[in-house]
Amino acid sequence: MSFFNKMLAKVGIGSAEIDTLLEKVSYVPGETVKGVVRIQGGSVDQEIESIYIQLMTRYIREQDDRKVEYSYTLAKFNVSEGLLLRSGEKLEIPFVFPLPLETPVTYNRQPVWLSTGLDIEMSIDPTDHDSIEVQPHFYMSAIFEAVEYLGFRYKTSSCEHATKLGRGVPFVQEFEYYPSTQFAGRVKELELMMNLDEDGIHVLVEVDRRARGLNGFFEQAFNLDERHARLYFDRADIAQGAKHIARQIERVIEEQSR
Questions:
Q1: pLDDT tens per residue across span 174-195
Q2: How far apart are CA 210 and CA 241, in angstroms?
């Protein structure tokens, strides 16, 4: 019976089970994530080589004129090294790790989840998946507030493949806005892309201009109607509030929409 149980455990029947419990489910980039991994031993003793948590998300990449979705591991954290899990034994192992600044916010159903796994030699590794909510960092919220102060309205957001803009990850999260009344005649859409660091936030402002006249027609036909500029707001800028940030963003939009 023991040999039979071992064979079953190798294909996942009667093997160990895991469950990840988080202190909470909503976070902001840079925040500390705390929780415990609960492990329930199966019908036989099992050698666990390691316990790990992967922080996962998805991004979109265009290939052959179609959009393909890819899963991506933002970070991997080891919870525990090798241990022997006895048959029927219950373990609870605490963990703590920082949520990377590159973690996308979960607007527009952008998925972010934790995948917890046990490495068990010669067996199907049990896994557990837990979705989390990621809210904007304080610096990002200041940018959103400034754009809304200018009258722009949130449209949608998505994570798009962009190796040069991703600052360590192969994608960038784009936030799209409908134009304000002030710019409705000149701007079709406003896009923001942001990268956080410890002292501030980098913002790429992209203005999709409306076609005007013959030049505008050719610009739109050859995808030349998009212009962008880079801004950086440090802690001092953020402390001055939305109006201060809005003035700088407004100046860029004015220049790029002419």
A1: 999 999 999 988 899 999 999 9
A2: 30
In three-state form (DSSP H/G/I as H, E/B as E, the rest C), the secondary structure along 170-193 is CEEEEEEEECCHHHCCCEEEEEEE
- pLDDT score at 1: 39
Structural contact between residues 203 and 192, judged by C-beta atoms closer than 8 angstroms = yes
Mean pLDDT in residue range 115-122: 80
Query: What would the two tokens of residue 239 be?
Result: 């402390």
- Give the CA distances from residue 152 to residues 105, 107, 191, 196, 249, in Å, rounded to whole numbers and listed in that order: 19, 17, 11, 22, 12
Q: List helix spans (H) across the chain.
A: 2-10, 138-149, 213-221, 235-239, 242-256
**Alpha-carbon gap, residue 92 to 79, rounded angstroms:** 11
pLDDT for 25-35, tens place per residue? 999 999 999 99
pTM of the entire structure?
0.86
| CB-CB contact of 123 with 70 (8 Å) | no
Extended beta strands in 2-65, E state: 17-22, 26-27, 32-40, 46-63
CA distance 205 to 253: 8
